[in-house]
Write a structure and sequence with these properties.
heterodimer, A: about 400 residues, alpha/beta, abc type-2 transporter like fold, 4-stranded mixed β-sheet, 16 helices, elongated, B: about 400 residues, 2 domains, 15 helices, about 65% helix
Chain lengths: ~400, ~400
């Protein structure tokens, strides 16, 4: 019973610290609130609309004007006229437009007399989203124009409408996007960025909480409160944070899949389990870092460097299997990587727990990290023999 | 005249002493050195390695061929031949393909219906279905691009054979199939290489973020050691704000011009990225950007009270600033508030200028709007950091010890 009382005493001490130093709540609740608002509002359209697309109309015929009108009418593009190629190129080089198309002089006449004029388009693929979408848009506009001209020519030859459709487009593609029907960019990014920021916060706040005992020399006071037991001290110190982070994670899941209505093919309860595992794995990593380097200033720098890499190595933007082999192994050292794989199985493919139990095992394996450095941290807490500055 | 000269001399002496003091601070602090040099120098290289392969080629897809005709097999072969796709499995039904996708063995499914050949033979429209794994947009892009290219190619050959069958001559057929031809140009990043896209944006951001974190750590240390950041020489009695700010700033400026050249010039060279701009022009951009980062960091680092809290509180700003540069989600789709918010950060303008100059080959004169914005930032943040030193000094002389908690 004494241990339980000691744990309670340590928890009370930790809660008092959290009240006295606003950094704990600001860094967890404040930062997560800001990030949720930021990403949900920045990407709220889901799909960029009215991307500025340049048109250099050297023909100025009814056909070319019709082309411009058609492009304007699509949801994706908004045309901006340029007088010359050079002007349009400069606008693209300075990032004002993502793409432009040149309609050559005599375009209409050439079409009518069957001289097959060339429409040249230029895409700035340095801006991935805008560039790729403008590229797709221009390609389909050019094909539509081609189709419209074909239709006119075939009509003139006396073919029926039905025959014409079969001739113009003999094959159509029926595309399905599994897990993100509307190709919503916000859904795709926010689903992983929010847990990623949560992971970073857990690591930083846990390292700070454990390390500040060393920095301010209060670790002996902590052990005293814990009745001299390191395990009681650690349990009492980490329980409040585990609860805090889990609650934040649960709220984030509710915000994403409930309030924001992000697609969730599987069960949101399984996601909650995944979030709990992410919290435990990230805390274990934090324990390992501060245990290996019981100097707060260094441990916190290392934690920052580590957490930032987690975003890239989760592989949700650029897939991990396309990275060099050495980097692929390195990626599995990040809890976020396993969480992302879990998320894919649950939220996109609805495979249930049986589909991602290995990810759960990997995340639990992180919990073997703290025992490795447990004694080392205990010594540091007792002897305070590491430089504080 | 004499007074002016002696004033200038004194100014320079004070400036130099503040500068030297700050330099000593920086180089005697291992934590700051880790951030400036380890992070500043290693991150660009690390990102270069991570995204070294630059594109996802031969992505495995499953094909469900319900038709099994020469036409559908031809379609499948063409899919396999694209750079984007690789037919990893031929499945008997959709159930099997879906299982493979769930096991992540394939990243997409292409389904050819049983009536594919029949419809084409009877001059109707045939439909090919695709199912994309949306866990990464690059999978989706590969599947869409690969299938579309094969579709267009097959379509043109079908059209041609139909027109031939209808008795048209060769000339006529070419005209009918492609009454309008097109020519696509992707001048700056031909293959949508991920490393060119990502590194161009992240490289310059590393400069701003590491400088801010490092400087804030030092500010935090000074505060903890009960020193003020307003290290005015005692002899000045509260005057000489400018030489303090300029002296402190010059230390960071000097270090970061070196790191900046490494990040913005050497790293692209090491990883074979496009460099369509002269060294001189990049250097001019760095002059503006590093100066803006210095005064930006001097202003906002004053918010930091304790050494380690800067990471705990502000690490999340790194991904936020990255998105605010508009490198991914286009700036034209930013909500107004976030657009205005992005103007607070030097990185917003510098990253854009860097992408335009280094990768798209825009000249320095075309980056004039960004340079002008950076100049405004330099002026505003310089005045702000002077005001902070002034206020801190006032408070310090009135309530010694109160600010320094």
């Amino acid at each position: 019973m004494g241990r339980l009382k000691d744990i309670k005493a340590v928890i009370r001490r930790e809660l008092r610290l959290m009240r006295q130093r606003p950094v704990y709540l600001l860094a967890s609740v404040g930062v997560m609130t800001f990030c949720c608002i930021f990403f949900l509002t920045l990407l709220r359209d889901g799909f960029p609309k009215d991307l500025p697309t340049g048109v250099v109309d050297l023909d100025n015929s009814s056909l070319s004007r019709n082309f411009i009108r058609q492009t304007d009418a699509t949801e994706l593009g908004k045309t901006i006229g340029f007088a010359s190629y050079t002007e349009a190129r400069e606008a693209m080089q300075t990032g004002k437009i993502d793409a432009f198309i040149v309609i050559p002089e005599g375009f209409y006449d050439d079409v009518l007399s069957g001289r097959q004029p060339v429409l040249a388009f230029y895409v700035n693929s340095l801006y991935f989203v805008g560039g790729a979408l403008s590229y797709k848009n221009l390609l389909s506009m050019v094909n539509l124009t081609s189709g419209a001209v074909q239709r006119e020519l075939l009509r003139a030859k006396g073919l029926s409408e039905e025959e014409i459709t079969g001739l113009i487009q003999p094959i159509a593609i029926d595309a399905h996007q599994i897990g993100n029907v509307t190709t919503d960019y916000g859904v795709y990014l926010t689903n992983v960025l929010i847990p990623g920021i949560l992971e970073a916060i857990i690591i930083l706040v846990t390292v700070y909480a454990l390390g500040s005992e060393l920095k301010y020399g209060t670790s002996r006071h902590l052990l005293e409160k814990a009745g001299g037991s390191m395990s009681v001290a650690m349990a009492g110190k980490l329980i409040p944070y585990t609860i805090l982070f889990t609650v934040i994670g649960v709220i984030c899941n509710l915000v994403l899949y409930g309030w924001a209505g992000f697609p969730m093919a599987g069960s949101v309860w399984n996601m909650m389990l995944g979030t709990l595992l992410l919290v435990l794995a990230s805390e274990s990593v934090a324990f390992f870092i501060i245990g290996t380097l019981p100097v707060l200033r260094l441990a916190i720098s290392i934690s920052a460097l580590y957490s930032v890499l987690g975003f890239s190595l989760a592989g949700f933007t650029f897939p991990v299997e396309a990275m060099p082999a050495a980097i692929q192994g390195f990626a599995s050292l990040f809890p976020l990587r396993h969480y992302y794989q879990m998320f894919v199985q649950e939220a996109i493919f609805a495979s249930g727990f049986s589909g991602w139990y290995m990810q759960a095992v990997y995340l639990l394996l992180f919990m073997f990290l703290p025992p490795l450095v447990y004694r080392r941290l205990q010594k540091a807490y007792i002897f305070q023999n590491y430089p504080r500055k | 005249m004499k007074r002016t000269i002696s004033y200038i001399k004194q100014w320079c002496r004070d400036w130099y002493s503040v500068f030297g003091q700050e330099m000593k601070q920086i180089f005697s602090d291992s934590g700051v050195l880790v951030i400036f040099f380890l992070a500043g120098l290693a991150y660009p290289v690390l990102y270069g390695f991570i995204y070294g392969n630059s594109s996802v080629d031969d992505m495995p897809v499953a094909i469900v061929d319900h038709c099994g005709s020469p036409g559908s097999r031809e379609f499948t072969r063409k899919l396999d031949a694209t750079r984007e796709l690789h037919i990893a499995c031929t499945c008997a039904d959709m159930g099997e393909a879906e299982r493979l996708m769930q096991q992540r063995k394939v990243k997409g499914i292409v389904m050819i219906p049983a009536d594919f050949e029949e419809k084409i033979a009877s001059a109707e429209q045939a439909t090919v279905s695709t199912y994309a794994d949306m866990s990464s947009f690059l999978y989706y892009k590969n599947l869409t691009m690969g299938v579309n290219m094969v579709m267009l190619d097959t379509m043109h050959s079908i059209q041609a054979s139909r027109f031939y069958a209808a008795g048209y001559g060769k000339e006529d057929v070419s005209r009918l199939v492609q009454p309008v031809r097109y020519e696509e140009n992707l001048p700056y990043n031909r293959n949508f290489a991920y490393n060119i896209f990502f590194l161009s944006a992240v490289l310059l951001l590393v400069i701003q973020q590491t400088m801010f974190y490092g400087m804030s750590m030092l500010t935090g240390t000074m505060r903890e050691e009960k020193r003020s950041i307003s290290v005015l020489p005692v002899s000045l009695k509260g005057r000489g704000l400018s030489r303090t700010v300029a002296g402190r700033g010059a230390a960071y400026w000097l270090i970061y011009m070196g790191i900046g050249v490494y990040v913005a010039v050497l790293t692209p060279w090491m990883f074979g990225m496009p460099r369509n701009c002269s060294f001189r022009e990049i250097l001019v951009l760095l002059l503006f950007y590093v100066s803006a980062c210095v005064v930006f960091s001097l202003t906002f680092s004053s918010l930091v009270r304790r050494r380690e809290t800067v990471f705990v509180l502000f690490l999340f700003m790194s991904p936020v600033c990255l998105f605010l540069t508009g490198f991914s989600w286009p700036e034209s789709s930013f909500p107004g508030f976030w657009k205005a918010f992005s103007y607070l950060f030097p990185s917003t303008f510098a990253v854009k200028a860097f992408i335009n100059m280094n990768t798209a080959g825009a000249g320095l004169s075309m980056a004039a709007p960004q340079l002008a914005a950076l100049t405004v930032q330099i002026i505003v943040y310089y005045i702000l950091s002077c005001m902070i030193v002034f206020t801190e000094n006032r408070l310090k002389s009135r309530h010694p010890g109160r600010l320094l908690r």
